Amino acid sequence: MNLSDKTLARLPDAVMRPTYDRARLTPGIVHIGLGNFHRAHQAWYLHRLMNEGLARDWAIIGAGVRAYDEDMRRKLAAQDYLTTLIELDPSGTSAEVIGPMIDYLSIEAGNGPLIARMARPDIRIVSLTVTEGGYYIDPATGGFDAHHPDIVHDAAHPDSPRTAFGAMVAALKRRRDAGIGPFTGMCCDNLQHNGDVLRQAVVSLARLSDPELAGWIEANCSFPNAMVDCIVPATGPKEIELARGFGIDDAAPVTHENFRQWVIEDNFCAGRPDWDRVGAQFTDNVHGYETQKLRILNAGHQVIVNAAELLGVETISGAMAHPSIHALFGKVEREEIVPHVVPVPGMTPPQYVDLIERRFANPAIVDTVRRVAFDGSSRHPGFVLPTVRDALAAGAPVEGLALVQAAWARMCFGTREDGSTIAPNDPFWDDLQAAARKAKTTPRAWLEQRQTYGDLADAPRFADAFDKWLKMIWAKGVEAAIGAYLKA
């Protein structure tokens, strides 16, 4: 049956659903970037709170700032903003319909509807999932990229911005001028110190057009850091059919693993839901948790995906089923990454590797290598290279980490080892491909991408290892290079 408020009561008994009256929900959150991860993670926690009779004044209003967001808005509006979540576990599959989102703002040039809604006093949190590369970070410095064309536009046209951050600045100006007060900006993307990154984007952009407003935002708004974790594959025809198998016609269902984690700094200037009652964790040590996750899980993805792409392996679980790739994952994680990760309460780094190994190998999760490899130009500097720097400083091994970078360079050449073409898979694909072509004969040309590698190109142990591995990959193939690493 078509998913809607009217059909909720007629869903099959096996499908969990809202026990709250959605018509009585009132908004408290605007979320920008209504992708699968948000609906399987933050929205799920809020749904569970609402099912306990709590947080019913914290409903979500969805939003987007790009023209392509309109497609998702239409799909969700047609089904009363409900989402089917399908949990994929080797022991069985289950479905749950969640309903904490009650509206999705129209997508318009200048973001007028978004600015107006965030400016209203009932909105106390503005949260975002806009991808790791969406925060206008200068890769060379880690600071704010004030020269990006979008930012230049927003600084010159603060009342009709292109970006989510420009819209937040415009809304906060209205709130300040009306005496309404601030809201909390909450980043839910996989970034170290993600709240600090969001603060940097909003305050830096405001400073370009209105320094006084920037000071007000910095003094009054809060931007809590958080660590988020749940493997959520992209939705395609297979996922839509899975929902239909439960008797639900959902145009945008979400599949996810049987694991979620959300660790949050308790720093909310205008209140918050009690997410900790349904499994989230508030702590002063978000950095420790996020470092463990980004260095082991997110970097672990990058350890395997480029070799998998070169060998024509299409899924993460398929990569873990490949003996050489699985062995590469295990050795790099345990010998080159774990020594530089500080334990957090309840989970040592080796235990966390074991957990991630099981999660990646889950055959019920059809998470594609292509999705995980996307935007390597942000993911390698964010997830992998910090460990390289720590290892070099400690005099620790970097051979496997250099091999991972060599596999990325070879993948960006744009062909698999069977000769088939790898379609562009990075916002900076043309630049990466040009560097990869030079690196085929001069490997160090890849490391001269200073915006990514900085001074690592000048670190002999890392650069020499990279040179060796890329030459071996081109001469003998990535599996032979992995074999040589495993024997070392």
Can you tell me about this structure?
With 488 residues, the chain is α/β, with parallel strands linked by helices. It folds into 2 domains: 5-284, Rossmann fold (3-Layer(aba) Sandwich); 287-487, N-(1-d-carboxylethyl)-l-norvaline Dehydrogenase, domain 2, CATH 1.10.1040.10. The chain is built from 21 helices and 11 strands. It has helices at residues 36-40, 42-51, 69-77, 112-118, 149-156, 164-178, 194-209, 211-220, 237-245, 286-310, 316-321, 323-337, 349-360, 369-373, 376-394, 399-411, 429-441, 444-447, 450-453, 460-476, 478-487, and strands at 27-32, 59-63, 83-89, 92-98, 101-104, 125-128, 184-187, 226-229, 254-256, 261-264, 281-282. It has a 5-stranded parallel beta sheet with strand order 5-2-1-6-7, with helices on both faces. It has a 3-stranded mixed beta sheet with strand order 4-3-9, sandwiched between helices. Helix 5 (149-156) crosses helix 7 (194-209), helix 6 packs across helix 7 (194-209) and helix 10 runs antiparallel to helix 12 (323-337). The longest helix is centred in the middle third of the chain and has 25 residues, at 286-310. The mean pLDDT is 96.
